[in-house]
Each structure stands twice: as C-alpha cells, then as structure tokens.
C-alpha cells in the first residue's frame, strides 16, 4: 500500500488544527511565565504593529511563544501523522493489542 498521510494530504490539518492548538498552548505558557516572574523590566506592553512580535515587550513575548509553540506542535503532529501513515501502509499497528 501507499502512505496516504503525506504532507499534501495533511497540510490544512497541520496548519489549522495543529498550529492553532500549539498557539493555545503557547499563550498559556506565556501567561504562566508572566504570572510567575511578573511584568519584568518591559518598558512597553508592545501591542501595536511590529512591536506586538518583539520578544522584548510584554505582549511580544507571549505572541512569540504562541508562534513558536504552534510551529513546534505542527511539526511534531506532521511527523507523527507521517509515521502513522507509513505503519498503516505496511499493515502494521503501532499498538500491541
């Protein structure tokens, strides 16, 4: 058989579902870090224009964590889907039962 879980077949799942799920995890991580360490030495909250993605600002740190977590989760999910598709194509199961 052929691996049906290629990047072309899973692209929109990875971009929409996996990336946004990872971004949600990144926002929680960013908020938790901000709660744990406080606002810190940020002079600007960074909510306008390019400052919103500058990790040296309050809002920019959370936004950068969201993008980083989203990308990482999409890559990990893509690798897992590809491996699962390869196992299915060979007729193997990834579980023991």
Strand content: under 5%
**Sheet with the most strands, sense and barrel status:** none
**SS elements, strand count:** 0
What general outline do the C-alpha atoms trace?
elongated
Structural class by helix and strand composition:
mainly alpha
Oligomer: single chain
Percent of residues in helices: 55-70%
Spell out the key features of this protein.
97 residues, mainly alpha, 2 helices, elongated
Summarize the structure in short.
The protein has 97 residues and is mainly α.
Structure explained in plain terms:
The chain is mostly helical and about 100 residues long. It is built from two helices and no strands. About 20% of the residues are buried.
What is the strand and helix layout of this fold?
Layout: H1 7-37, H2 58-90
Helix pairs in contact: 1-2
């Amino acid at each position: 058989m052929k691996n049906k879980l290629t990047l072309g077949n899973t692209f929109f799942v990875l971009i929409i579902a996996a990336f946004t799920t990872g971004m949600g995890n990144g926002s929680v991580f960013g908020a938790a870090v901000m709660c744990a360490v406080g606002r810190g030495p940020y002079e600007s909250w960074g909510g306008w224009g390019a400052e919103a993605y500058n990790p040296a600002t309050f809002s920019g740190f959370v936004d950068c964590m969201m993008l980083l977590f989203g990308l990482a989760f999409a890559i990990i999910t893509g690798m897992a889907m590809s491996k699962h598709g390869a196992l299915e194509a060979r007729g193997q199961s990834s579980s023991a039962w």
